[in-house]
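Minutes, project check-in

Agenda point 3 was the complex the collaborators sent over. CS summarized: three entities, 1405 residues total, and the question is how they sit relative to each other. Sequences were read into the notes so everyone works from the same version.
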Amino acid sequence: MLGMLEFNPELDFKLLLAVPLIPFFGYLLQISLRGRLPHGDKILTGGMFVVMCITVYMAAKAISAAHAGVPFLHHSEEAGMTHGWLYDVASQPSFKNLVIGVFYDPLGAAMLAVVGIVSFCVHLFSMGYMHGDKRYPIFFANISLFTFAMLGLVLSDNILFLFVFWEIMGLMSYLLIGHFSHDPSQKFFHSWATWASKKAFLTTRVGDVCLFIGIFIFYNGFQEFYATSAAAHAALPEFHPMRFTHMWEMAKLVVEANDGIYPTWMTVGGMFTIGGTVGKSAQFPLHIWLPDAMAGPTPVSAMIHAATMVAAGVFLLGRMFPLLSPDVLAAVTVFGSVTALFAATIGLTCYDLKAVLAYSTISQLGFMVAAVGLGSVEAGMFHMTTHAFFKACLFLAAGSVIHGCHHIQDMRVMGGIRKKMPITFACMLVCTMAIAGLPWFSGFFSKDAILLAAWGNLIEGEYFGGPPLLALICLSLGALFTSFYMFRLIFMTFFGEYRGDMEHHMYSAQLAAEGYEGPPPHGHDDDHGHDDHDDHGHDAHHGVHESPLVMTAALVIVAIFAIPGAAGLLNGWFTETVTVENMYGENVGAWVLAGTPVMEGTKEVLVGGLPMAIADHNSHEGHDAHKLALIVSSIVAFGGLIGAWFLYIKRRDLPGKLTAQFPLVYTGVRRKYFIDEIVDFTVLKPTVGFARFLRKVDENVIDGTVLLVGRIHKALGSISAWIDSTFVDGAVNAVGLVSQNLGAALRLFQTGRIQPYAAFAVGGGILTAAWLILS
Amino acid sequence: MPLGAYIAVSAALFAIGIVTIITRRNVLYILMGTEMILNAANINFVAFNRFGSNGLDGRMFAIFTIILAAAEAAVALAIVLNFYYLFNSVKPSEADLLRE
Amino acid sequence: MDHILSWITFLPLIGMIAILFVPKANTSLIKTIALAATGLPLVLATWLYFGLFDKMSADLQMVDRFTWIAGLNAEYYVGIDGLSIALVWLTALLLFIGVPASFGINKAQKSYYALLLLLEVGIFGVFVAQDYFLFYVFWEVMLLPMYFLIGIWGGPRREYAAIKFFLYTLAGSVLMLVALVALRLDMGALIDSGTAEVVSALSGTEDLGRNAYFSIPAMTALGGAGLLTGSTLPFGGDFLGMQFTTWVFWFLFIGFAIKVPVFPFHTWLPDAHVQAPTPISVILAGILLKLGGYGMIRACFPIVPQGFDDYSYALGVLGVISIVYGAYVALGQTDFKRMVAYSSVSHMGYVLLGMAALTEWGMSGAALQMFNHGTSAAVLFLVVGVIYDRAHHRDLNGFGGLAQVMPRYWALTTLGFFAALGLPGLAGFVSEAMTLVGAYQSPRPGFKLLVIISVLGIVITAAFLLWAMQRVFLGNLNPKYKDIKDINAREVLCQAPLLFLCIFLGILPHYLLDWMRPSVALLIQNLTVN
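CS then shared the predicted structure for the full assembly.
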């Protein structure tokens, strides 16, 4: 049994290579045959099941290696599997080439398993949810390629290929968010999906080019350093400047050579690099694309919010962590903290089921990013993992609710459906408890670790005082709000009585004021192929029903990871496997730990597995910190729960009164702080205006200059022609004119008729004769 | 009859031929005019042969001219026919292509 | 096979002569001949690429050389190296695609295909010529058919566009000719002088002991040794206060920059593109623009490396302006084809930036970008042609929702658009990334700033392409086009090889880079001024 869990490079790299290739070939198969492939959806889902099995198996190897204390950083070089990407000739030195391979490490193992499991569940769920959609086969093909991109990103051994997959993922998100833009029957989503997909691609691309620049800076800096450093040559005889392991090593060497201080170019490079995270992981101010991404089908939202897009940004931080200087980490902390709080406040006022979840994702991503900024990269990664599961479950459950309620998304016309959709309700409740951070649920462990990191930083305070304080305040408040709006969601959706078929209810006036016109028409159900229930129809609001088995099964699988026992197990595995030493190797890991302001003992606390173990802590500060973190996180979690219960179950009139009390604040938050409008006004309109202006410049000034040169020459030509014809040609013409006039006179005789000619001849003869005779 | 009488007839015939050629509006008359001029020349040939030399030169030229006139008439009629096809008329004033 | 380059170059000429003997009405025979006369060079070029060419060598290969005009010391001298072989192949491919893409043209077909084949002769000739005089002759040979192809078969304002194209390019050629004459005189005097320096510079080349005054390799050798400075000329290397090398550099550079086109010499391009028929646009964007970039690295920079060294910042700045400015102007367009034309300006800016940086990645990236832009821009023009053939207009705001009725066309267009915007995994990304990384590594520090500015172009490029995508394909279907026909098999076949190349070279770029590597290394060595 243990032999099974030992890493075997020869075989395992082939398995790992198969992981992205299975969905890739699934995509090719599906896209080339379109709908003609019978059971294409089942084949692709089956492929994803295989992928999930492999990833889980491989993750088990990582866990077992960590348990045995064996280093677990594997590169496919071990199995001789590398490929010279730019040059295939051996004569090119490695630093000028880009030698690619498969990289497998603890962080990658965790991420891979998350992606495998979530993606399988999303595939499974889509088989029910998307059934009957016009572009169903294309949807499956695209979501497979989406998964491929994320799997490839995780397995990339170098930053450039991470970027390659990163961008392919951007493309797939563009196509998937825009899924409904090809289907005019989806009136509600049709035009929204069109611009939302464009917005997502362009907004993330702003971040992407920052990452792109960051890659240049690090590549260039490391290569310059390598060229002059003997230590670097000794440590890395064959240098691959973009390979992660070499970059970590080089970061250490560069900083050590610079007296333990990060040089300025690394700070600049790091700042650009985190731009990628800000874009992809939807951090303020580039978060604007994520709420609109829900224009895509709900399974896509689940993918984007859990396993792919946004996770990639946080994953990047994990990969680049040793390269980030304290200044960059401070910036990361600020970005994350501000986003965590800011998005949470917006979540308080949303009525759209998916919008609440979208803002909660942004907020939770802020937690992860802030955790990395605070130096606790493990906590950030752990929160990413737990979040992936419960957020996937929440979105899929939301999809299930939307599906069950016939494509209504507004919570104000839901209510009381817990009895009709018990499985969905149970899954959603569990995951809400997890995201709110109720003790022993999965979110509790990860969020607690993040708060602990913030608290620890504040006490130690070696690097900075401001950002940890900001982080602690923002994250605590953010956690409170998270708990509040998530339970608000639960209470509004599942408790009370069903408002969908009521003429008048507590929100009807508000809905009417907003111009709400009932549910959006649901295109793909109109000619539905559902055979498990046939009570659909535009007016069939009574028929709220539980979703089919494929959907609920998918929900249950991801929900398992949130419940207390499983969450504890996950916590144990994760904290033992994904440690800094395991992630970056003994050498770099020790250096990172020494340099980052993580409190001693933090790791040990997390290793314990169950929160009871936390109390047994020797370090005085650690004890205090941990107790405080525990208290704070429990207070905010229960505080939110109680608050939501009070406002949405007990005193349901209070929210309306509160909003009436503070109309300005409410409107501001409700309109998402007008960020979209501000961006539109400050970025989009000026850009397009500038482009139109430049077009005019091009047409009038630059082309005008060319035409002017042409006109000048034409004018010069006319003048020359005039001079030529008047003076130069004049002299010639004078000669010509004489002969011309003479000719004109003679021309009169030239009638062309024969009889005048004869007359002239005779006349001429007579005259000649007369002259001969007379003379 | 004195030589002068022959020459007077010949001159009159020649003058009539020239005037016909210059003034008539029909190609056929022009042809007839040229025949008259040729015959005026014939009269001269024969008359000068009778009064001047002692060989048959003049008479031979006259016979040659008559043969030539016959051939010329054939060619000229062919031209006239083509002329007619081209211009759809037999008026020489229509033919002014040379002017171009 | 002996004389393979001459065969490749002149096979289309044979085809052209054959076409002239075919009756005008027999269009199917004319098309067959045109296909054969472009197909055979493609076969030969493919064989040359994978079979005959030694990719480990930086030398000129497949050389054909004999005296041509003895009085001028001009030779017929052709040969290829890693810089030109890929472009020769691309030319063969695009001209071969250009023939079936022209099957829709019904006007004066005989003259059209004859001119197309003559154009191919000129393009091949420029890529293989190693004698500057021959180079110049082919350069001009290419110009004339292009003038007629735009001027006769073009759109409503074809005369204007054709004459603008012709005069603009001719103005550049004239500058080139002036520089060429000066170089010829200096070369003649240098070689005749036979000093030890000249002999040592030429030793190891084939030009030693040959009075080849127009030979480009000889000019490169002497220029690289710092001898080609005009010192033998009457004004002694210093003309009107500027060095001879500076004059020559700028004259040659502007001559080629007009062709690229580099800002601010680009305004002939949108007019020519908009008016030209689709296959001619494809060839114009796909190959003719590359002639400018190729000319720079073959017949401008290595001959006067001093000038290149002095003005590399200026070149880099021009490149970045082209990138960003071209992208912005494209964003402001409402005409589909003009937008694509300006995207060409933007993409060719990378070529200049990469070359100016003088690093191995930069130079390889530039050479690669020329090839990749050749495929992706060709696809974009074919895409525009498809919609223009059906709707007879190109107004971006006049469509809408076409993806609903033309799903196959939409899929191909999406691939083409994403190839053009440099999506990783497709070919454009490799060259853009290499160019930018290479430029960032440049020994000149200012290039770092230039690179950071130029990435703005990447975002704007994505913006205008996606915006165009939205306006043409997404949203509500314009009822005018509800019966529009989807892309047909012929059009798909024209685009398919190019799209395949976009994907293939995005995944396995070493199929080009390995071939270029020795020549690029040699070029950088030649350009580095000590």
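Noted in discussion: Residues 436 and 451 of chain C are 6 Å apart (CA to CA).
Follow-up: revisit at the next meeting once the mutant set is ready.
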